[in-house]
Structures are given as structure tokens and as C-alpha cells.
Amino acid sequence: MAMDTHQKLKILADAAKYDASCASSGAKRSNKGKGLGNATGSGICHSYTPDGRCVSLLKILLTNRCIYDCRYCVNRVSNDVQRAAFTVEEVVRLTIEFYRRNYIEGLFLSSGVVGDSDRTMDLLAEVARRLREEEEFHGYIHLKGVVGASDEALAKAGRFADRISANVELPVQADLDKLAPEKSIQEAEGAMGYLKSGIEASKDHGRRTRAPRFAPAGQSTQMIVGATASTDSTILGTAHRLYDTYRLRRVYYTAYSPIPNAHQDLPAENPELVREHRLYQADWLLRFYEFGIDEVVTRDDGNLDLEVDPKMAWALANREFFPVDINSAPREALLRVPGLGTRSVAKILKARARRRLREADLRELRAPLKRIMPFIVAADTWSAAARKLDAPGLRAEVKPGSQQLMLFEASSSAVSGQV
Asked: What pTM, to 2 d.p., does this model score?
């Protein structure tokens, strides 16, 4: 019996929940008075913008049928799950109807691999082409970059999508050999390399001509955390290399979630969700705070400290670096203070140019005093006893009272980078 669109949507929206590589896009696309939708830098994919607004998109698979047998994937060919597949026309119609009803602001479209990589990539790109050219849809579109697809297939996707994500899935080839032996990191990086070239060429040509844009919101990737024994140091090392080599906008870390009919090689229990959160915090420190991997990973086993955030862990392990004088320390030193993010440091630098800052001034600047006071001195806080920097109980004092992650707190940290 043939499925109707509603039945397909129920199956393929649920199947898409394991792909986390979508978030605030940074893309800007205006309809200029005609067509449908606008993509702005405010966000996508149920992300929280800096002003607290939640934005959403239609996040589905084109199909959950797949030729691969990746052991960590619920849609692997050997798994006994209900299968479904949209036609290109069905996805286009759903996107337009959902947008007109104000349900969504864009589309995130991924897929299992059917037939071969080129065929799958072409189907995904055709959805985007029809939305852009036939429906004049100018909202955000994020497509999965199918690893193994030809340059021609990726080129079509890049012409119509805002962002493309080619997923490495696991941090090292040994992990893939164990859980997804048909896949290779080298092949994923081949797709990333082509996308990087297309994005850079588009930007270069765009400065001189009206050349078509190519994936203007850049590219991203995803790694699954906790499905193998790879350490956080290994995971961050792979992420750091991919950022540097392919100019990725984002690496997404997804805590492994046990799936129905899971393979015996996979862990039976969820890894701690806080590990995923700590990886995002460490990622931010590496990219924007000039930390090194050996600094954010302070444990001997190569994993992040789960009790405190990576910057606090570094501060506790390097107490000789503190206290930092907020009235004279350079920006780089201020960024090492737990609780001071890039925005707080910018405010301090601006304010101290006019006067010497006291504790009351920091409170007025909305700096998190409870977190920063053990690690700084202001014009009126020189007492070492007040700081308790050398006290053996400092770690217990600064450790959060609960490890339960609050949705709004986590999303705000991810958007603002205030670590």
C-alpha cells in the first residue's frame, strides 16, 4: 500500500533527528520584493538567536533507504525499520506549504544513499534548484553533501544551497573501519576540498563580477561522540585540522544515542550529555580564545573535565597565571579568566580607558562576579584572602551545583561564545 505524504513525513522527520549538523547559518538572502522567504544571519534549525528568538526549519530526509551498513546509524541497510522516500516534488511542496503557514524559515535536507552517491546528491540538489528557480524561494537551504559524489554533483548543490555539510562522522579512520568500513575520512575530505575551492572562487569572482554565489554560508561537518573509545583530545585534534584545512564554519559534536536493534560493537548506554557540551566549549576556546588542545584537555586520559568547563579546568590547573589585573592586563590574559567572554572583555577594555575599574564597575558591566573574583584583581580588591586562589577548596566552590544542562543556558553559550 502506497504511503501518503503525511506518513512519509512522520517517518523521515524522525529519521533526520540524528543529524545535528545544522544551526545558525549566517547567510543573507533577500527576495527583493518578489518570491518567498528571506534567509538572514539570525539563525535556523531550532537555534536560539542572541536575542533569545527561536527559529526553525523543515528538517527531513529525502529517504531513509541506504546502501550502507554503518553500525551507528538507525537507517543502515541491515536494520529492520520502516522505509520511506519522498519525491522531489513532495519535498518542494512541503517546504512551500510549511513556509506559507509560518511553520518554518528554511529547509535542512539530508538523505540515505540510494543507488549511488551522484544520484542521491543530484536529487537533493534538484529540490534546491526547484525551490530557487521555480518557486522563487529565498529562505535558508542546507543540504547534505553526499560523500563520494562527483564534483559536478556537488557543484549543482553549491549553486542553490546556502550551506552544505559533508560529514566525517567519526574522528579517525580506525573508528570508521570498525563501525562503517565502507566509508573513509579521505573521501569525506575530498568533498570538503572541492566545496572549499568553490566557496573561495565564488567569493573572489563576486568581488569583481556578478558571478553566482556558491554555498554562501559555507560548509560544516559532524562527528559522533561516544560511539568509540576515541578521546576528546583526538576528536578536537581532528576538528582543529578540518577547520584549518577546509575553512569550516562549524564542526558539530553529536553524543551517540543508542538506536533500535543496536549492533553489539556499540555502547549500550548513552554517553554523558555534558561531554558533548564540553566539546562545544573547548571548540570555542580553540577557535576564538587562542587556547591549544593540550590546554583545554587537562586530564591524563585525554578527555575533558566534565565537572567544570574547559577554561575553568585550565585556570584551576594553572593558578600561578592568576590573579589577572583587569586594569592593566592585555586582552589575551583577560580572555583566560573563567567567565570573561569576548564581549565582557571588550566592555572592560573600553571602560578602563576612562577610569580604573573597581568591583562595582564590574557589576555594572554585568561581569559574572562569582566566577571571576577568585582570578582577578580590581582597583579595590587586592586582598589575596578574599580571592582564595590558593585554597584547596576552590574547585568545589566554583564547580556548578548540578550537571543537568539547561536548554537556554547551553544555547546562549553556544551562540555568544561567553565561556
From this structure: 0.87
